[in-house]
Amino acid sequence: DTAVSQTPKYLVTQMGNDKSIKCEQNLGHDTMYWYKQDSKKFLKIMFSYNNKELIINETVPNRFSPKSPDKAHLNLHINSLELGDSAVYFCASSQGGRKLFFGSGTQLSVL
Amino acid sequence: SQKIEQNSEALNIQEGKTATLTCNYTNYSPAYLQWYRQDPGRGPVFLLLIRENEKEKRKERLKVTFDTTLKQSLFHITASQPADSATYLCALDQGNTGKLIFGQGTTLQVKP
């Protein structure tokens, strides 16, 4: 029974398209995150939600819009995809912000 | 500027030996430091957390030290096994921001 699950696992798309990544956690955690891991393996936070409320928004382009319908779900919608958006996107959750549980990642390739 | 650095070169060791990985940081004052393991194609998995007032933390074959004067954490795996081969990430937690700052990771390869 997967704790943090995200879909799809792979996403290949053309520049300019709009795409979404979905994330769900069944751990009962209050906080969920989106992280981006670039080709050099640096993992950087993009957004954090606590009980459906946005609490961290790191200088991410407006083309990225997170949505949290409830505390168990955090989706990421990306408009007008660019080549530089190619990366692995990880969803994560935590209770109290200390120990993070990550999903298995979505590898996004923009052609 | 703020930096967090881990050995960028892969660490290759023989099975049974102790692996030591380093995490150095500048211009941060973390309240906690965490270590994660990441396998290819998978998300990071939490291993250990150490607080700024703790010098050392152990969990089975793992040991973490945290020196806030040197601004360094060392991560040790004793009696290493091929199954320990993975990338290990350190992450700084400043305690009041709700976000972790990750290093780029060190890849460990344990040879039988």
3D structure, described in words:
The complex is a heterodimer of chains A (111) and B (112). By secondary structure, chain A is mainly β. Chain A is built from no helices and eleven strands. In chain A, strands 2, 4, 5, 6, 9, 10 and 11 form a seven-stranded mixed beta sheet that branches. A four-stranded antiparallel beta sheet of chain A has the order 1-3-8-7, with no helix packed on it. Chain A is globular, with a radius of gyration of 13 Å. The interface between A and B is medium-sized, with 25 and 20 residues.
Q: Could you give a quick summary of the protein structure above?
A:
The complex is a heterodimer of chains A (111) and B (112). Chain A is mainly beta and 111 residues long.
Structural class based on helices, strands and sheet pairing of chain B:
mainly beta
Poorly predicted runs of chain A: none
The largest interface is:
A-B, 25 and 20 residues
Mean pLDDT of chain A: 93
**Major sheet size, sense and barrel closure of chain B:** 6 strands, mixed
Helix content of chain B: under 10%
Whole-number mean pLDDT of chain B: 93
How far the N terminus sits from the C terminus of chain A, by CA atoms, comes to 34 Å
Strand fraction of chain B equals over 45%
The number of helical elements of chain B comes to 0
What is the rounded Rg of chain B? Answer: 13 Å
Radius of gyration of chain A: 13 Å
Order of helices and strands of chain B: EEEEEEEEEEE
What is the CA–CA distance across the termini of chain B? 41 Å
For the biggest sheet of chain A, the summary is: 7 strands, mixed
Principal-axis shape of chain A equals: globular
What's the assembly state of these chains?
A: heterodimer
Low-confidence stretches of chain B: none
